[in-house]
Amino acid sequence: MTVIIESLDHEGRGVAHVDGKAVFIEGALPGETVEYVAFKKKPSYEQGTATKIVKPSFLRTTPKCAYFGLCGGCSMQHLEADAQVAAKQRVLEDNLRHIGKVRPQAILPAIYGQAWGYRHRARMSVRFVLKKSRLMVGFHEKRSSFVVDMSSCEILPPRISALIEPLRELINQLSLRERMPQIEFALGEHVDVLVLRILDALNEQDETLLKAFADRHKVQFFLQPAGLDSIQPFYPLDAPELNYSLPEFDVVMPFHPTEFTQVNPAINRILMRRTLALLDPKPGERIIDLFCGLGNFTLPIARRGARVLGVEGSAALVRRARGNAERNGLERQTEFQVANLFETTGESLGKLGRFDKMLIDPPRDGAVEVVKALGDDAPRRIVYVSCSPATLARDAAVLVHTKGYELLAAGVVNMFPHTAHVESIALFER
User: Fold this and answer.
1) Is 387 an annotated catalytic residue?
2) Predicted confidence (pLDDT) per residue in 61-78, tens digit
3) Of residues 71, 153, 292, 387, which has the active-site annotation?
């Protein structure tokens, strides 16, 4: 079939219509004429892949990665970087308009940065394929559990991309090469940590090989023999602390390799500046930070002189946040509580006290129970940092149409270049 692409959807696919049916086409861009083949057909829509670009868009560019199109990690490398940001802004505005029935009074300038080598957290799969007699290290293929046989990755920092081939050679020599399903990378400012998921114990030769690799490539290995609680440092034990910093706020944030942190530390710093500018914390104000994690926003807010209550569902992250507050001398400005915010009620929210301002930074499910629970004494200003434009729009509808807030501003944060993932930030006041 040959079609003309009308727009991009929220997953970065080209959208066309054939006989009144929507067709979502991977690898196609707005304005292009393409030939495609369908791999899924439903009564109301089809999904397909572009097989020939008959008339290319002027925004089309050559993907930098040799595995683009096969690897499931990136979906937009064929679109110029600036155009990717514009497309994400349209996704945000469309979601707010169609799902939330709201429009921001102002569109914030997009937050974006370097397009390559930005990803400081990643999890790669490891598979020994007996038929090929080859060990494969890489991300999963699109729509598949198969592993892409990679030797490089353009969105990883170059020093980490350069480790893929040596890691393959290392694991191939280990006694448990068929019992090591994944490698997780967590990069700090002073150390690069590799967490090896192992299903059998290492023998003496394995340990010797791992230690030699760590010394040669200046990395630290952690081992995960069972669940997340089993993860422990292996070698070297005197490695520098794993952390990231927010210099503008004089904050250093230690973290465990598997604890949630933003994958793009450069963009996180810019996002922090934007968030604090919108929230505008003042000395003496009481501010609540919901879904606070390890204190990424809590501590910079406290550094501005406000008293902050951080609330998070994970007891482990709350312990980490308290430790980070002490590490930065902010324990007197901060409090932390464990609570399941997906079950928030007016009563449970009221017990936390009255606050001048609120920051919400939820996972993809959003914070609908939180916003529904807001009462007449709710904070006058809310800054909402979102990783899902659909749930942001849903929650914005509650805030605007039932809680009396105005959506003053919204904009995108390009935390994940070359993917269709849309992060955003919004400001509400009443």
Assistant:
1) yes
2) 999 999 999 999 999 999
3) 387
